[in-house]
Amino acid sequence: MALLHSGELPASTVVLEAPEDARGATGEAARITVVEDGTDTIEVTVDAEDAGWLVVADSVRAGGWHATIDGERAELVPADHATGAVGVPEGRHEVRLFYEAPGTMVGLATSAVATLGVVLLTVLPVVLARRRRRHVSP
Description:
The protein is an alpha+beta fold. It is 27% helix and 35% strand.
């Protein structure tokens, strides 16, 4: 925090919270084009002269945020005390950050099982009653 507030760092400097996250980024220039900046999706095109970090100044550190680079999962790391960063390799890349509510898949599976249970509990008695009527009839 002291380093960030000291005023000694150039604006282009990214302060990563974990030293092991700093892997080969040089900080060379990159052209960034924001394709979409929505409430649950951020899409950016990065044309980088060398590997570097894309810092997203939104609260993407909360649970549920994920990142991809060219459609492949990428790590979203804490940076600049309150933001998140994605390590982007040299070249042109599509970076996408998106929010998936934690527990979405568990919720969908639970809903599917509950729906199946309701259908079975509704249909099974009707099927069994029809079978009984057929066996009882002369």
